Amino acid sequence: MESTEDEQLERVNSLPDLELASTSSSPSSILTTEDSRSTTSSGEVSRTTTSSSGEIPALLVPVLVDRTLLTGDELRVAVSRPKCVGRNNKGVTWGFTSVIGRRREMEDAVALIPGFMSRTCDHVGGCTAPGSKTSSEISPVHFFGVYDGHGGNQVANFCAERMHEVIAQEWDRETVDGYEWQRKWETAFSIGFEKADNELLEEAIAPEMVGSTAVVAILSGCQIITSNCGDSRAVLCRGTETIPLTVDQKPDREDELLRIEGGGGKVINWNGARVFGVLAMSRAIGDRYLRPWIIPVPEISFMTRTDEDECLILASDGLWDVMTNEEVGEVARHLLRRRRRSISSLTDDIPPAQAVADHLTEIAYGRNSSDNISIIVVDLKAKRKRQQRQ
Questions:
Q1: Which domains does the chain have, with CATH numbers?
Q2: What is the pLDDT of residues 253-301, one digit of tens each?
Q3: Cβ contacts of 339-345, under 8 Å, gap ≥ 24
């Protein structure tokens, strides 16, 4: 496996270089087509504020004891109390690229909002260690989004600036029992996407023939909550597996085809399956001229984090058109592990997640991707302390 991965990376290194802008770091980043035509960035989550109460019923909190009075076995039990998988969710690092590629215009936009909410893990829902100290501590909840516009860049830009805000507002407004935390997120996403879509019309943001995909991920200490509308995609690298977190909403997907034709629409094969021969996806934000066949209704998935998780990848179809999930996962895992092992000797100070985003972009471009390419890579391993040089 190691030699195969090395050969893949050799092929990556031999591809033509892209002219990428210099990197920068900030607490939050929203990149739209008005900012630049080709951009990369990386960042690190640090701290958070505000408070909130818990939803999931708590287990009994272990009583603190004097360790000097414990036997070896008792001490091991005492120090191995359950913790949230992501602990306080503060060691997350990320990187992204967003390049125009071979297109004449840049219509992609990305949003990275570390700490867009601050809550206790058990309040967010799906905590793997309810009742533990970490579950009741205020922790940041992170937001990542990729938006692939079509017909223009207005909708993608609007989503990058607004989507995380409306989702947070709807999540705060929705009240459910602790056991129904998943329904709370489903409602927040569904109403949030609908609200963003309605605001496009109310504020005359874009013509009715402009739209955008939207794939977003919420990262809490114990959960990865993903919402997708269109054919951008999110995958999770876990151990040796690459797990799809979203399923592309294409017009020829069986359930989508039945929905479209059941409503009197048509799917025509014109350079791929397209709604009325026009749009190559079956759901999107905007595109009001194709209602009711194109809808802004997201599909939501939940994935509990584990210690085996390597990284989360969100990308527009500029990547997925030329690479499979498995290829992306293989390159990401190898690069992450290699960079982590040698990070103490690196001088360029590029985070492993940024290196992965850069390499995947180069591969996609080298394979003649004809679209804009936008990629977010979130490193799910806690940041290792660099060894002091002797």
A1: 26-58+79-248+296-379 (3.60.40.10)
A2: 999 999 999 999 999 999 999 999 999 999 999 999 999 999 999 999 9
A3: 340/381, 340/384, 343/384, 343/386, 344/386, 344/387, 344/389
